[in-house]
Amino acid sequence: MRYLSGLLAWWVMKMNTKAVYEVPAKSVLNLNSGFRKKKLCDGPTFTAGTSCCYSCRYCYVEDAVGKTTHFQDILKSDPSVKFAGIVMRRKNAVEILRKQLTNSKGMPKYLSESDLRVVYASPLVDVAPNLTLANETVEMIKVVMSLTNWEVRLLSKSTFLPKIAAAIAELKKGWEKRIMFGVSTGTLEDGVARAIEVGTPLVSKRIESLHWLQDNGFRTYGMICPSLPCNDYPAFAKDMAAALRTEKMESVYAEALNARGESFEQTYNALTAGGYRNTATDFQGITKNKQAWETYSRALFSAHADVYRNQMATDRALGPKLRFLQYCNKATEPWWNSRVQDGAVIL
Known about the structure:
This protein is an alpha/beta fold. The protein contains twelve helices and 16 strands.
């Protein structure tokens, strides 16, 4: 082990082919995150990592945290390091979470019977890209379940969510009913996903894991995002609903592709290299023209809305079953505002 700037510990080991850095952290729990606006939680989120084991070409995390002190310290040690090429884990994440949920005497701070908030994991990284991190997620859920009455919303592109579900169910009866499991995909094509979501399991395998959760009575929700432009949005929305069995879900989230920084170019290049030149051309078209992007977003939303219209969510957030997350400006907001009843969530 060697130390960087006296703060960072690095192992000559890899996780999902990436070098692993462990960084110090004062917190892993954010009680007032912006994910409340996305209706994914009631404010709280937790994360045990800062950079992910996966390498999705459209990922926004580098743009959001790539200038942090910890990553800059890593760069000073090795200027060749790329954000997408490493895993940054927060040291002692489980114990930090425990401390954040207890007072100076070790007593729970948020154990009120009326405090039934939903906490979301994770705002930055996948919660289960391998068994090591899936087990860490189990440990963090144990802490939340023991010290609060909160519900937990998990999101992953992994196939290990069933392992988390089974582990929690064995720990204490009833805990599993406080967890909502979401499997994320914006496509049903294994090849497309392989091109732009490097290192993730096949979409078909993710859907198998989702079906296992549904068949075994666990709570599920959908995360259909990010979705690329296509020629037939109504068919896409119907096919996705059928594949994910959304009738068994409490809610369904969906989103257009809102790439940031260099991720637009990375996504285009990945699609081209993967042999999806037509999709790449269509994708480039919506990224170069704001009106084209808005037209694509509206077509995608309208197709989903037709599938879920008049269907209501059954989680605590209630409202329409569809939650289509959309970034707006003053010019576009009126159109989306008029469709909130059909599931538009304005960001």
